[in-house]
Amino acid sequence: MTNRRIFLRNSGLAMVGIGTAPLWLKRALYAADAPSPRNSTRKKILVAIFQRGAADGLNVVVPHGERAYYDLRPTIAIPRPSASGEKSGETALDLDGFFGLHPSLAPLKPLYAAQHLAIVDAIGSPDPTRSHFDAQDYMESGTPGRKSTDSGWMNRGLPRIEGKESPVRAVALGAQLPRAMRGREPALALQSIGGFQVHDEAAAMQFEQMYMASKDPMLQAAGRETFEAMAMLQSIQKQPYVPAAGADYRGPFGNSLKQIAQLIKSDVGVEMAFADIGNWDHHVNEVAQRSTEGQLANRLQEFGASLAAFWLDMGDRMQDVVVVTMSEFGRTARENGDRGTDHGHANSMFVMGGGVKGGKVYGKWPGLEREQLYEGRDLALTTDFRDVLGELVSRHMGNPSVNGVFPGYKPNFLGLV
Amino acid sequence: MRHQVLIALASAGCLAVFPGIAAYAKKKSADEARQFLQQIPKDQRIEQALNRLTFGPRPDDAAQVKAMGLKIWIDRQLHPDRIAENPVLLEKLKTLDTLTMTSDQLVRNYPTPQMVKQMVAGQMPFPTDPGKKMMIEKLAERYEKQGQQPNGAADPAANQNAPPDPAELRKMLTGDQIRSLRQGTPEQRLAFFQSLPQSKQDYVVMAMPGVRQAISSVGSPELRRRIELIGGPQQVVYRDLAESKVLRAIYSNRQLEEQLDDFWFNHFNVYLDKGADRYLVTAYERDAIRPHVLGKFRDLLEATAKSPAMLFYLDNWQSVGPNAPQPRGQNNKQNRGLNENYGRELMELHTLGVDNGYTQKDVTEVARCFTGWTINQPQRGGKFVFNPRLHDNGEKVVLGVTIPAGGGEKDGEKVLDILARQPATARFISKKLAMRFVADDPPAAMLDRMADTFLKSDGDIRQVMLTMIDSKEFWSVGAYRSKMKSPLEMVASAVRSVNGNVDYATALMQQVAQLGEPLYRKLEPTGYSNSSMEWANSASLMARMNFALQLAGNKVAGVKVEVAQAATPGDPLAGIPLGSPDFQKR
Questions:
Q1: pTM
Q2: Which residues 129-168 in chain B show a CB within 8 A of chain A?
Q3: Class of A43-405 per CATH?
């Protein structure tokens, strides 16, 4: 039968390195001699954050040294850093004399100063689409312009490993597995660590016995994987999780990051984690009367405080972790008539981690003068998002096949890690 | 069992296993070939037919098929127009009034917050139905009050779930009234709700999400409708679609038609949440897919190619030929050019199969042929039109066939003619059907026969299905119970197997999503895979077990089941059989 055929085909792959066999097959093959994930050496971890809705990169990483920026945005520009302390708390937080952070990202400023946070500007997907749907799809599949790619870059980016794999190797916080994590390698979508269980103990035991005894190898193995993941997640849940003192996780996004921190610190073998934060599509009232009020500031407060909380909470473990943020495209350089911005092109990305060469804004600044704008309206793109993700997959995660992760593209590493 | 031996061997260590596996693999494929030749016992044939051609047997189905005769039953399923539809289903579908509306009616009757704003501003007509018009005026008022900027980006559902403003609440209702609405069983709360005057009822539905949820679970279909409308009118369109899919799978007498509708929609997948598609998918499934599921493939292909839903989803509506006259009056000119998305997926996913005898050059040429196939006002539920001003009228060569210059709209039709009749297409479609209805890895000999029928019958899907069902492989040990149920199949078959009575299917449709198959929300044009592997993952399996327990424990809203084996009513262990490994297969 098919299942057995798949089993055999994949077992055959074991001869040339375990290859693309699903997790449960590898587990079956290596169950006897594999080390448990708790004893294995620390793996590198990549956490990807998706800001859905197209964040306004120009108001997040503010080019305060660019006059055109203030011409294009007479009412919603973030004020220049001020030496005199005028409008204190409402001006951009200077990074390098040209760029500054939105004031609501103040919690991230110390990380930048300590060189743990790098920023890449004028970056994004080269595809010209301004559709949220298409652009998110392309960024998550890692193949701009190609819709039928059936897996995501994070799934393809998981390094091939021999030996026993953790059932929570790739984890996404949310109801559905995001596009970026779909593919051949098992990946788990979790709404919460505690929620992953059969809601009746007696039934759980009966089910476990039935699946273990199943004569169908696919269901038997998938069942084993499920009950292992459940046992693992339940054991983590036994004690209530207490983040490091001072970690100020905020909102649903903070809750996602907190659970990722909990998983990583529990040493259950997480290598890739994903969380998203929505509602960045600010056509209207992006910036209110004060720069620290309005829709954008609200999102950035949750975003910045939670990322900083994650850093603090993780402590030494950040040596093994890189967090990278992305959004499907940027927004128009010029503000619209509703104190907002419309769909644009290039954007910025944050890269944070113990091994990150931070304290620097990477990328070539294309300028905001009329002739420098993409299609006369948007920040032009000078760095492909795959340059950053490719470098992280390759140099941080140690995946030797960047080509397999980003087919048809040869990333230019920026030297971020 | 052999595979258990294999696992035991494998876990003993990889080095020791290799020679064994290699030798075993050869023997194995020979065994497998034999399994597709070996017939299942006669008394399993009805079970096999019900498992494959329906959404799972109900307790009495086998007896009925036996009484009718299996051959006659199959013949009837292949001719759904000869089967009277289940009146219970028709009654349940009646409430879902969006199902029979045209796309532009949907836009007007179930508008987005942005459209509500436009209606109030007089830029768009109100719905003609006075009840709906009133509801939309109320919504507009509410948006205004909340200071919500209806820019289409904000999530109206999120706003609708905010707790009521205390000052406003006290103005509208007395303390006693509030308590009565918030306490007691849902039935008691509903009774009290119905004793309030209409204006106060409207307020409660709008402002009190907790009460809304409680009374909705026990209310009449009409009340639920009113509540859904408040939760965001545009959500109703989606909910009707997904609910009707679940209801049909459970109740329809035309089970094979439902299976095929699911198969073909998935084959020509469209993602409902992509912008205008929210209003276009209802008509797409009803008018483009369903009428052709047992018809000619060429007709089905053209129906999808000309459907606004597909034109929007794969961007062809905005594709402009490089040599086309410039479009006039378009405000986003700068982003327009040749768009190859549809051309590529048409060959890769709809007809030939990936990398199956076409080149990038063919993709570009096909895309040129389809320039001008567009939509008149997609955001208003517009229709297919051919716009010559967008069309590249030059000569094209597709798969070696020259399409002379000046063909206009006919260029695209010629491409469909060419693609629908390719042997690669016959084979690709046959294999997908066989993967769904026979086995994950269907034997080549059967695919040859199916593809042969496809070509000889000019792509007659009914004939291809008949060839497949008449194949000995369909009735073989290799096929029998070899497929894992999809989430929709799992949920529908579970309800069918316990003769569940579905009052409304909202919770069931959410279960299907929990199991990993959000209906109408498969983002990629590939659709869901027809392979069992698609569903064998931890999150899905966990959700299956939990669903089984909930269903049998009568904890799925809107569904009532009687579980004969249950020692005590509500015993959670009654769900064990439905969550077992055996029940996950068909």
A1: 0.82
A2: 149, 151-155
A3: alpha beta
